[in-house]
Amino acid sequence: MFRASITAIAALGALGACDRIAPAPVAEPMEQSLAASCAGDGPAADRLAQAVEAARVAEGKTVLARTEALDRIAQSHACDMALMGRADVAGSNGSNVVDRARAVGYPTCGVVQLVGGGTSPEGTVADWLIPGPNREQVLGQLSFEIGSGVARGADGRVWHSVVLGNDCRA
What we know:
Blueprint: H1 2-16, H2 30-37, H3 42-58, E1 65-66, H4 68-84, H5 97-103, E2 112-117, H6 121-128, H7 133-139, E3 145-152, E4 158-165
Helix pairs in contact: 2-4, 3-6
């Protein structure tokens, strides 16, 4: 329930900050620099994106395009959560998904983030599919692109991050 509330708040903030033209990148939030020092788990990140896609296909929704920019945002935030030891859409420096999108030059039209930890990628997506705001985001038709990231913390726990977006420049 707590994760659902956080994601819903982040989604509402993101929708209110819709940039029609991508702003110039700003200084990178701390999470972006963490990606360089955090290897992440590429195969698990792929499984996470595939699990989201499988859920969407099962519900008759459009397939999302995987993008490098959204992967970068998701992976760096997974690394930040692994460092913090908690699943939260807020970064360790207070940044949010809109800040992270702007930092990599991605437009913020409808950009949303879902996070989780401690289970398999498929288990995390199953948690997101419980009726509520996370399910609405996973199955929503306002996003056309996806990025995913997975990182393991020093304590061995696994952290998952998915970013959904709409590159409104097109």
